[in-house]
Amino acid sequence: MSQKNKRKKQAFTLLELMVCLALIALLGGLLVIQGQGLIAHHRFSNALHTLLADLHRAQIVAMTQGRDGVCKLVKEKGHWGAQIVFEVQTTPPMNHELLELNKLAFQGSPVESFQFSLLSSGRIIPSGKLTFFSSQGEEAIEIDLSYPMHLKVQQRQKKFFFDN
Known about the structure:
- The chain has one domain: minor pseudopilin epsh fold (3-Layer(bab) Sandwich).
- It contains two helices and ten strands.
- It is elongated and about 90 Å long.
């Protein structure tokens, strides 16, 4: 019985502690990798939802005040940005940095920059589908530039090396 009591009072061996630490480090590394992707997703989604809200606001300003506006989407120094301005500046321009945006397409064709008009009648010229692709390549957000503007989120599946 004395051996059983001694065994119960012994601490963990060095090998057991090393295995536990290795498992904790592995799980921590996996969480960090997943967290980075999640942060990028939220930056991308938040930037585009903010842009869409400002486009709605700009559309309302154009219709209620009878002024035409212009939205410019431009890639400068490797980063995409958006600016909404009106003919007569009674409101300050709305500027955005579109975080985690990789590329932009209009009607399915890639574009390096894009500009559209917000008319006082509520119409947008040119009308069509503007698609924003995330830098991760896993997500695409599509904005239908018709009145009223619609936001459609498309989740794209990851391609694995064994897919054809």
